[in-house]
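Sample 3 of the quickstart, ligand uridine-5'-diphosphate-xylopyranose:
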Amino acid sequence: MGNIIKKICCIGAGYVGGPTMAVIAEKCPEIEVYVVDMNAERIKKWNDDDLSKLPVFEPGLSEVISKCRNKNLFFTTELKKNLASSDMVFISVNTPTKTRGVGAGQASDLKWIEASARQIAEYAQGHTIVIEKSTLPVKTAQTIKKILMEANQDNSPLKNNLKSFSILSNPEFLAEGTAISDLKNPDRVLIGGEDDKAINALISIYKKWVNKEKIITTDLWSSELSKLVANAFLAQRISSINSISALCEKTGADIKDVSIATGTDKRIGKYFLNAGPGFGGSCFKKDISNLVYICNYYGLAEVSSYWQKVIDINSWQKRRISKIIIEKLFNTLSGKKISVLGFSFKANTNDTRESPSIDICRDLMEEGANISIYDPKVKESQVSAALNIDTFNNSLGYKNFKFASSLNDCMKDSYAVIVLTEWEEFAHLDWDQIYSMMIKPAWIFDTRSIVDKAKVDKAGFNFWRIGS
Ligand code: UDX
Ligand code: UDX
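Result:
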C-alpha cells in the first residue's frame, strides 16, 4: 500500500459531499473524484449543462464545477464500479434525527451510514481508506469498522479478493452560503484516526492548499466529538445573544450595541453574535440533540439539560417573534395578507432545512393569516414541502400560503412585511414605494436587523426590530 491516492469516491452528493469533492478535485487535478448518489434526479442536476440548475446553490460553486466536471470530477449513480476502483472513500450521507424507536427526536438515525458501510464492505477491493465526513455521534467509527472488518470473513463472491480498510474521521466545518471559501481557506482541518499511513495519505491531499499547521490530528473519538462540540458552541452563542435580545426589548438597550460592545473583547470575539429569529440549518439542532442524547446515555443528566436549554431558547425565540407580530396587528391575523421575505435558513443558500421561517409561517397561518412568501433562491416546491401543506393541520383547514414570484406580488395589499432571511437585496428595498401599496397601518418586522430604520420611519411604517 502506498500513500498515493489516484481515485476518490464520495457517497452522498448533497450540500456537504458536492462542494467538498468539487474543491478537492480543483486542488488535486491528478486525482479522479467520483461523487455518487442513489438519487438519480440529484445526479442529473449536478450534470446539467445549465449551471443554474445545480442542486446546491453556493457562491463560487458553479465556477469550480465548470472547471473540473468531466475532467477529474464526475457525478454518477454508479456505486459498485467506483467503490471497487477507489483508494479512498468519503461517506457524506445524511444522518437525520431518529423519528421513532429508541432515542426518537434526539439520536441520529445511522441507517444510511450503515448502508454505506455495507456497500463499501461488499464492493471495495484492495486497501481502502474510509473517511467519515458526515457528522456522527461519538464512536460511530466503531460501527463502521465492525462492518468493514467482517467483510473479510463473509461468504460473498468477493471472498477471495484481498481487502483491507483504514477508518478516519474528517468532519466538515463548512457553513452553507460560504462553503467554497470555507473549503478553500479553512480555519483548521481535523483528522482523527489510528493508522498513520492513512492519516498521511489524507494530509497529503489537504496539504495541496492548506498549511500544515492548520491540520490537526487526534484519535477517532476526539475528532467525532469535536465536531458536535464545535456546533454546540456556535449554536450556544446564538441562543445566548437571542436570550439577551428579549431583555433588550424590555429594557430599552439595543442588542446591536450590546453585541458589538461584548464581542470586541478578544476572549469573546465579534463573530457569530447576531441576534435573529433563531438558528436553522441541517446541523445545529440535530447535533445538539445528539449531544443531549449521548450525555443522558452516559448518565450525565446535568450536562444533558445544560445543552438542551440551547435548543429550548431557540424554539422560544421563534415563538416569541410570532407572538409579537400577532399582538402588534391588534391580536388578529384572520384574513390578513402578511408578506414573508426570505425562506432559506440563512442568506446565500437555497437550503430550507430547519429554517426559522417554517415555524414562524406556521404560527401565523394557524392564526388565519394569508402568507405570501418571497425568496430569491428557494423554489415553490421546497416551500410547500417544508410547510407540509397537505398534512399541516391548521385549525382553519385550508392552505393559506402563496409563493410570490416577485417582491411586488409579495407585498401588494399586505398588512405587514416580516424579514426572516438576511438576503442582501432586502437591505436595499424602496420602502416609499412599498408603503404606497400596503394596507395601513403598515408594519415591518425586521428579525435580522438589516432594514434601515431612518428610511422606513420616513416612509411612514410602524417598525419593529429584534432586540431594540
Ligand atoms: C448531511 C448531514 O446533514 C450532515 O450532518 C453531514 O455532516 C453530511 O451529510 P448534507 O450533505 O447537507 O449533509 O446532506 P444531503 O444534502 O441530504 O446529502 C446527502 C446525500 O446522500 C443525498 O443526496 C442522498 O441521496 C445521499 N445518499 C444517502 C446516498 O447516496 N446513499 C445513501 O445510502 C444515503
Ligand atoms: C453550521 C456550522 O457553522 C458549520 O461549521 C457546520 O459544518 C455546519 O453547521 P450552517 O448551518 O451551514 O453551518 O450555517 P451557520 O452559518 O452556522 O448558521 C446557522 C444558523 O445560525 C443560521 O440559521 C443563521 O442564520 C444563524 N445565525 C448565525 C444567527 O442567527 N446569528 C449569527 O450570528 C450567526
